[in-house]
Every structure is written in C-alpha cells, then in structure tokens.
Target: Tubulin/FtsZ GTPase domain-containing protein
Amino acid sequence: MPRECITIQAGQCGNQVGCKFWESALREHAAAASGTRYPAFDDALSSFFRNVDTRYTPPREIKAGNCSVPIQCLKARAVLIDMEEGVVNQLLKGPLSELFDEKQYITDNSGSGNNWAQGHEFYGPKYSDAILEKVRHEAESCHSLQSFFMLHSLGGGTGSGVGSYVLELLNDMYPKVHRFCTSIFPNAEDDDVITSPYNSLLSMAVLAEHADCVLPLENQALLDIIQKKESWDAKAEAGQRLPTSRGGSKVRPGKPFDEMNGIAANLLLHLTSSMRFEGTLNVDLNEITTNLVPFPRLHFLVSSMAPYSSSLLSG
Model:
C-alpha cells in the first residue's frame, strides 16, 4: 500500500533545497526503473508524486500500480510558500516547472524582511486559509498520508516565521500525521542577517512544541563537508597535502549554496528510501520517532551521511 508524504517548502532556502530534492528524487526513481521498458507509476514513485492525466479537464488522478500503470504527467506532492516571488518564479520557469501548478504555491512580493514576527504574525494569518486549502488539495489526493516534510531555514523571516505558523496549522488540522522538519540553522560566527539568532530562537520553541521530528542542519557544517571533499579530491589529484576548511585557508572562496542544498536534499531522500523501496531492512517513518524520540520534546535528531561523493554534493 502506498504511503504518501507531502513536502512543504517555506522561504527562499526551503524552496532552493526543495528544487534539489525534486531533481534528486526524479533521478533516483529513473535509475530504479532503468531496467524496465516503459517507466511505470508504482507505489515507490507515488510517495512523493501524483500521476495525472492532462487530457481531461480538470486533470484526473491515476492510481499507482505495480508495473502496469504508465506515467502520464507527474506532479509533486508539495506546497511552495515564499513571501518573495523570485525563487518560486525561477522554479516555475525552470526544468522542473511541469511538476507544479497554480494550486501548489503561495507568493507575495514584499518579503518578510528577515523578521520572524513579520512572517508569523502577519503573513501567516494573512495566508492561513490559502495554505490550508492547498494542503487539503494535496492531502485529498493521497491514499494513505503518512507525513508532512517541512523544508525551511531558521535565519530568514519566511522560513522561520511563516514556517513556524504552518507547523502550528498542521498540528491543529492533521494531528495524527507525523511532521518532519529539515531545518537549516544559520552560522553563529559570520551570518550576514543580524536578526537570525532571534529568528532561530523563536522558531526553536515552535519546533519543540509542534514537530514530531527535527533534522537540524547548520550552514557551516554543510560548507565544511564540501570543502573537505574538495580538499581530498585535490590531494588525490596533486598528491600533496592541502589545507582543510577549519584552521586553514578555504579551498574555494564564497559559499557554494547549490551544493549545500544538495546535501540537505539527499538527507531527506535517503531518510525515506526504506519506505519507498522494497527491502528486508525496511523501516517505516513512524518507527524513527518511536525508536529515537524518548520524550515528545526531545526530537532533534543529529544526522550523518557517508561516504562523501560528487553525487551527494550535486544532489
């Protein structure tokens, strides 16, 4: 029986990570189906995607099958939220544009100003009905909704403020559906948003109260992974010792956000692989919270991935 997950992308960072996630998910399922003659819409693919027949108005949902249901038009089980239009518009005009339609995104044109209160107290209530309607539309297309995945950062205004508000809405409207959050924490040392510590602190209170499981990631840790990988590759090519990221010069100037987002996307993808694909060691997502969360508020789980590879960095 398929178990579906709805992904909610809040803010600039959340939508950029989401873009890498959908790219990786499509590649992973394409690789899994490489031995078949025609791509089929099976239970594994239905976890994150809907299959619709666009020959009808409105488009009709096509239920998943073993290997007999062909893919007509895939739509992501996602809701995109951002109080600026730039990132969402870029996503809708890019190669992944066919995965989304007008019923799946909410944007504004003024932004949250890197202010948690602006997102939580103004934009959250302003768009609460629209958000619930879009979530309801995605939930009604699910056969057995298992969880919500929130992708957001805690440093900005929309990801922290609106993301926190959406998490509260989900707890009220869907209390029995698990809520997983992949939260990107800002760098405490050299973050360029002066309000990010306050945004993070206010968001932490909501995450502790309303999330079932939080997978925290930190910008500097993601950057260290990339720089260490590049340093190892450079050593292998040049046969000499090069400085690493901590305590030495950086391998590459600037922050490669695209590769950092790829690591965050792969975390979510690998977390759900045992649920989507058949295997003897399959683990349901509900078992993660059952086995690893001793008390309701102690649900911040430290994650790790190995080995580091170019596919991990590229997403």
Observations:
- The chain has twelve helices and nine strands.
